[in-house]
Design brief:
Layout (H helix, E strand, L loop, with lengths): L1 E2 L2 E5 L7 H13 L2 E6 L4 E6 L6 E6 L7 H11 L2 E6 L3 E6 L10 H18 L1 H14 L2 H8 L2 H15 L1 H15 L10 H7 L2 H25 L4
Antiparallel strand pairs: 1-2, 2-4, 3-4, 5-7, 6-7
């Protein structure tokens, strides 16, 4: 989708498809579109640039904000150029086709993945706590009475609240699924392009939604049976 002279595309997920997304953004760059920013909802904003035949890599940074300059120096020394970043955690770089990843061994890349999954899981508790706060508010006599007279609205609000409460569980399931399907991801620390070929986004969405639907259905039944709302 184009808005003015900008192009908006959705992200398939930086946390689980960094290699695949790097290939997508490299293709966009070859077509004359460079990523400019990433918003909280997972959309990329791209700007028009001269066509460039470069590779794009996406990395997760688990360190302190004060150490970011040192982290960037490692990439710059290897020939990479920062394009943009997201929340000082995800950094997107571009570079000539011939340069390699800054990771020198499988263990360091595996550690990076573990720290990323931990960060994602911890962040999933933000909507969870918002959901808990919403439950306390909905238990208030005024709101309880109001929603009691508006059953359709009450159902919608409860569904949204339940959705926020399930965020941590959804992240855990996604991490377990991804680690089970892509067991050897860390072994491709020097070959992200080859690993990207193995990633099947549509298949993963269908299977993970099916798994999430089953688990969500069980939880929804429990909530309904015990009248937890």
């Amino acid at each position: 989708m184009k808005i003015g002279n900008k192009k908006i595309i959705y992200s398939k997920g930086l946390a689980f498809y960094a290699e695949l997304e790097g290939q997508r953004l490299a293709k966009e760059l070859a077509d004359g579109w460079e990523i400019e920013s990433i918003n909280w909802f997972g959309f990329y904003k791209l700007k028009p640039v001269p066509k460039e035949n470069s590779q794009v890599t996406i990395d997760f940074y688990p360190g302190k904000k004060a150490d970011i300059p040192e982290y960037l120096e490692i990439y710059e020394a290897a020939g990479w150029e920062e394009i943009t970043r997201y929340r000082n955690r995800y950094f997107i770089f571009k570079g000539p086709k011939e340069i390699e990843s800054v990771y020198t061994d499988e263990e360091s890349f595996s550690t990076r993945i573990k720290r990323e999954h931990t960060w994602v899981l911890l962040n999933s508790f933000i909507p969870f706590f918002i959901g808990l706060l919403a439950i306390l508010i909905l238990k208030n006599q005024f709101f309880a009475s109001f929603f009691g007279n508006h059953s359709a609205l009450s159902f919608s609000v409860n569904a949204i609240v339940l959705f926020t409460l399930m965020f941590p569980l959804a992240c855990i399931l996604a991490i377990i699924y991804y680690k089970s399907i892509y067991l050897k991801r860390s072994s491709y620390f020097k070959q992200p392009q080859k690993f990207a070929i193995k990633q099947r986004f549509k298949r993963d969405v269908v299977l993970s939604l099916t798994l999430g639907g089953v688990v969500g259905g069980i939880i929804g039944f429990i909530f309904g049976y015990f009248n937890l709302f």
